[in-house]
Amino acid sequence: MLRQMMLRVVVCVVVLSGLVHTGPTDLWSSMLRLSDVHRCSNKPQQTLDPEVHMNITEIIERWGYPAEEHEVLTEDGYILTVNRIPHGLRHTPGPKPVVLLQHGLLAAGSNWITNLPNSSLGYVLADNGYDVWLGNSRGNTWSRKHQTLRPDQEDFWRFSYDEMALKDLPAVVNYILKVTGQEQIYYVGHSQGTTIAFIAFSKLPELASKIKMFFGLAPVATVAFTSSPMTKMSCLPEWFIWDLLGRRDFLPQCHIIEWFAEHVCAERLLSELCGNIFFVLCGFDEKNLNMTRTPVYVTHNPAGTSVQNMVHWAQAVKGGKLMAFDFGAAGNLKHYNQSTPPEYRVQDMKVPTALFSGGQDTLADPKDVAMLLPQVSNLVFHRHIEHWEHLDFIWGLDANEQMFPFILKLLQDHR
Predict the structure, then answer these.
(1) How far, in Å, CA of 413 to CA of 393, rounded?
(2) For site-directed labelling of 265, which of 44, 136, 184, 239 has its Cα 20 to 30 A away?
(3) Half-sphere exposure (CA, 13 Å, Cβ side) for 375?
(4) Whole-angstrom Cα distance, residue 134 to residue 102?
(5) Which helix (H) or strand (E) holds 132?
(6) Whole-number Å distance between alpha carbons of 276 and 278
(7) CB neighbourhood size of 367 (10 A)
(8) For residues 159 and 34, what is the distance between their CA atoms, to the nearest angstrom?
(9) CB of 169 within 8 A of CB of 207?
């Protein structure tokens, strides 16, 4: 136990050593002021946002929208929760075009509905006549069920974004088509949500034929140039990561995070600090974020994933390619019948694709995006938003000017 605690301290130092010059404000000086600010503040704590303790369905219903909750079974036994907003506040009868929204790494379907309705893509699409579905990848807060396995078993967590792409995504798309009676859907992915799309739509042509259009927000195929502190983990030996983090879940939602959101982020003078701690890992712009919502963001994110998935991302940083999980020479022979993991070919994807990238994005780095663009064989649109960082695509206050109108027009033009 002591040895593992020491290892965790070491990895925290390694990861956090990259944070000092990442954010727009000095994280460390903010942290040093934390106790002083708390002691000196005579102002009452902000009223706690009720969404802090709500699930996805409850958040949707709070704003007057209809909400449904579905369970989708994958071919390997995982049971995924998928949320639905079947229509907007003004309901018109009849079938509606379907949009599936897929979150990124360590996130959840709540990403699309935790801003106010006019700046949350889920609500905006519903109000514009779309049937909106919110995916949840295996292992996050809302998708921790299996037919035979339990989350306290290591076997439950033997997956990475390979399985999310090749097993979760086909199961969810096919389920949605069956429920709605549609033949095709639109797909919107953020970050890892784009990665699994690049893999699935290039590897599974039958699945790709069911996608009318793919919208990639902060697209990630390779992470060769990423400078996010999250990638500091790739500097560590793989055996060390396994020894340090174990072989189960990584950063699940927990009571400590809920306490932090309720007692720190909800303090009016501390909301900026809370934003810095959380968003500095992915890109943070306090001017483009509703700071009063940070307690809601923090209680729903991080939503957890597997340690194997984090190791896969560490491999991607080192290798600089979009490849399947590397089990080592012997393991690769067993899984792939070759000594090295296979590489995914984005150029094989034929789905009409629209990409939105950010100039300040440290995870979907502009240099990686520049390498990706020529590989997208059916690229119909690309918009580069110079001042945007990684999380502006889901929570940016100016998204209703910088992105939503373009998505809505593309949806209309490709009906």
Answers:
(1) 22
(2) 136
(3) 20
(4) 6
(5) strand 131-134
(6) 6
(7) 12
(8) 38
(9) yes
Both structure tokens of 413: 């033009």
pLDDT digits (tens, 9 = 90+) for 250-259: 888 765 556 6
Give this prediction's pTM: 0.87
- Who has greater pLDDT, 170 or 235? 170
Give the count of beta carbons closer than 10 Å to the beta carbon of residue 130: 22
Question: CA 113, CA 123: separation in Å to the nearest integer?
Answer: 7
What's 344's DSSP letter? P
pLDDT given at position 282: 65
3-state secondary structure of 272: helix
Residues 410/213, Cβ–Cβ less than 8 Å: yes
Instruction: Give 362-382 pLDDT, tens digit per residue.
Output: 999 999 999 999 999 999 999
Longest dimension (CA), the chain: 66
Encoded amino acid at 7, one letter? L
Nearest-CA neighbor of 123 among 72, 62, 184?
62
With contact defined as beta carbons under 8 Å apart, do 226 and 362 qualify? yes
- 312 included as an active-site residue: no
Pairing of strands 249-250, 379-385: unpaired
Q: Which residue has the tokens 């130092």?
A: 13
Cα–Cα distance, 104 to 191 (Å, whole number)? 5
Q: Which helix (H) or strand (E) holds 190?
A: strand 185-190
Catalytic residue list contains 30: no
CB-based contact 121:394 (threshold 8 Å)? yes
- Provide the token pair at 114: 């935790």
pLDDT at 205 over 60: yes
- The Cα 166–Cα 329 span in angstroms is 22
Given 146, 190, 300, 390, the catalytic residue: 390
- Catalytic residue chosen out of the listed positions 191, 202, 271, 306: 191
Kindly state the DSSP code that residue 48 receives in the 8-state scheme. Answer: P
* Inter-residue contact 166 to 260 (CB < 8 Å): no
- Give the pair of three-digit tokens for residue 169: 């995504």
pLDDT in tens, 17-29: 343 333 333 333 3
